[in-house]
Amino acid sequence: KAASTGHLDVVRFLVLNAGADLNQAEKGETTWIAAAKGHLDIVRLLCSEAGANPNHANNYGSTPTYVAAQNGHLDVVRYLCTDAGADANQANTYGYTPTYAAEQYGYNKIARYLRGVVESNML
Does the predicted model carry a pTM greater than 0.70? Predict the structure, then answer.
């Protein structure tokens, strides 16, 4: 719950001191839910300080990059793809990529950014 509500200090304590499971997608204390809610500071803490996997998917195969794109959080998408090493083109269980999610929800700036990342990774 702390990751979804943006409580950085609580998340820091839970993952760095109390041993919370970083990659438990549906339980709340995750990179996934922080990305979905746009909490860049928490995503950064989880990936850079606590070693969370930026490509860890939920039960539907959606990654933190996918849900950040789907919810319009460009700063989180940029961090995940640029600094955390997330796969910008990792599709979910249904074959949908983060670029597709951004396009479907009208986040054209995010879709353009992701297309650029994917293209540069192909070179």
Answer: yes
